[in-house]
Amino acid sequence: MEEIKNTNENPVEHKPKNFIYEIIDEDIKTEKFGKQVHTRFPPEPNGYLHIGHAKSICLNYGIARDYKGKFNLRFDDTNPEKEEQEYVDSIVEDVKWLGADFEERILYASDYFEQMYKWAVELIKKGKAYVCDLNADEIRATRGTLTEPGKDSPYRNRTVEENLDLFERMRKGEFENGAKTLRAKIDMASPNFNMRDPIMYRVVHAEHHRQGNSWCIYPTYDWAHGNEDSLEGITHSICTLEFENHRPLYDWFLDSLGVYHPKQIEFARLNLSYTVMSKRRLLQLVKEKHVDDWDDPRMPTISGYRRRGYTPEAIRNFAEIIGVAKRDALTDISLLEFAIRDDLNKNAQRVMAVLRPLKVVITNYEGEENLDAVNNPEKPEAGSRTVPFSKELFIEESDFMEDPPKGFHRLVPAGEVRLRYAYIIKCEEVIKDATGKVIELHCTYDKDTKSGSGASTKKVKGVIHWVSANNAVDAEVRLYDRLFTVENPGAEEDWLGKINPNSLEVISDAKIEPFIKNAKPLDKFQFERLGYFCVDTKYTTAEKLVFNRTVTLKDSWGKKS
RNA sequence: UGCCCCAUAGUGUAAUUGGCAACACGUCUGACUCUGGAUCAGAAGACUUCAGGUUCGACCCCUGAUGGGGCAGCCA
């Protein structure tokens, strides 16, 4: 590893993590921005944040942290028709939860509207912007095509005085929506569409969630974004690939203004298999009730993952694992699942829970006793707890098979299996109902095989989990599967038709050991042999615990719970 | 059709011109185990999209081709 020599008072040493770090290293070396590093995350408050945003947040905040620079949270709230305070609130919560420290700098593009207006006036005075009377259709018609240049607007050569007057009257509200725009005067023949006299301001008579009705003209993204970055002293303005073609315009505006000029860098957005990642589609899933809400545990939103039981550490680690590059890719969901399993394995309290109970009677056992169970084998300091054992138990339906396939080493007729933390039992009798369904098992236990007694010389292949019937806590457990049946639903014409009809299974009569009683919303557990589960924040009540399955345990046998 | 960007194992990334192309996930073995988890040991899997060129030497530089992505909102 080569150390980066940095004479800065904030020395930074690291191996470049990705191409953006290389660019920044170079900029520090040449002192393009002095030796400062200042990034930002600029969401539009028109939806909830998703895991793709998490990637961007981790990238931007990570850079600020690694270079001992600053990181801003800034709302790009330039379109009053789509934005809402609810989204602002959720975004602030999600960014904080992820642990990206913006040092209380919650900034808003709308706070810069006055300054942007002044700069627009400057551009008009420099002859670089003009008021255009063409309507939307006319502008589209004169913009040209992929192969043909556009045509100059008939209003392109208005005098500075006329432009100034018209622009002021636009602001005053003298014109209807869409009647006039302010356009940059660049080049209608440019091969880059963004340079064909792009629109800087449009008339929109709408109430802004923060500015109320003080404005009826709103800046477009291209005009506003560089201004915002410049005003905040951002050094590296990191965005996704689709803005690559906009960079010449970003540069043109800032150069024309002659103001501080940050560097825009683009990277590939995250695509995750078996889900969709565009806000438009996520909004549609919510609006059309294909899911519960933005925080439905099946949603790839940050709030969805939080509710499902993901931790910020796991998501941050995931962002680290997938890296950053410029080629568009489809990341396999298994990388995300690894990140959360890795975290929860080390940190989650273990507990025994039976999802589909099958009653077991230990015919030669009387009374009740308390057994000792380890809370987390990966974390000895977590200690142990007590688990009640008695004559009547529940085991998992799938842990018994009357006619087992080869390799099945759980309970079978006349077979033995260990009850975890308890005794080895033997299946003596299988009881069925009229339809032939197994409804109860009669077993005997071997009192010399008690866990931890050291007395057992007996070895069995299988260990299964169980819950004492009298002491069991009833709970609802919600099992989630991928939301879509195809790897890349976003690429499908009929993507809604690819929704997995079995993405949610609700189990209403799960049995859990009594330790679970005091669980609070968002508490995370490993249900032994089944997976990781998290107390739901929405459906859990004082009377009933509801769990979301975060992710299953890895399983080399192939059971399906 | 015009412009811009990209191209490395199944997946995501690395290798800033050189001894067998690395890491993580996933997959497969084996060991261990009172979680078919974890852990440990190991394996398979890439002629670095193709074709030329520069060079003693190219994943890396150049040219072309092919493939993929983006752009014709008064969205961001």
Describe the fold and architecture:
It is a single chain. The model is unreliable at 1-11 (pLDDT under 50). This protein has three domains: 19-267, Rossmann fold; 279-349 and 475-551, Glutamyl-trna Synthetase, Domain 2 (Glutamyl-tRNA Synthetase, domain 2, Orthogonal Bundle), CATH 1.10.1160; 357-465, Ribosomal Protein L25, Chain P, CATH 2.40.240.10. The chain is 25% helix and 24% strand. It is elongated, with a radius of gyration of 31 Å. It starts with 18 loop residues before the first helix and ends in a 9-residue tail after the last strand. It is an alpha/beta fold and 561 residues long. Helix 3 links the parallel strand 3 and strand 4 (106-108). The protein has helices at 19-29, 51-66, 85-98, 113-125, 136-142, 160-172, 221-232, 247-257, 279-287, 302-308, 312-322, 333-347, and strands at residues 32-35, 38-41, 70-75, 106-108, 129-132, 181-184, 199-203, 217-219, 236-240, 263-267, 349-351, 353-354, 357-362, 368-374, 384-390, 392-396, 416-419, 424-432, 438-446, 463-464, 466-468, 473-480, 504-512, 524-527, 531-535, 545-552. The chain has a seven-stranded mixed β-sheet with strand order 11-24-25-26-22-23-12, covered by helices on one side. It binds one RNA strand of 76 nucleotides through helix 5, strand 7, helix 7, helix 12 and strand 20.
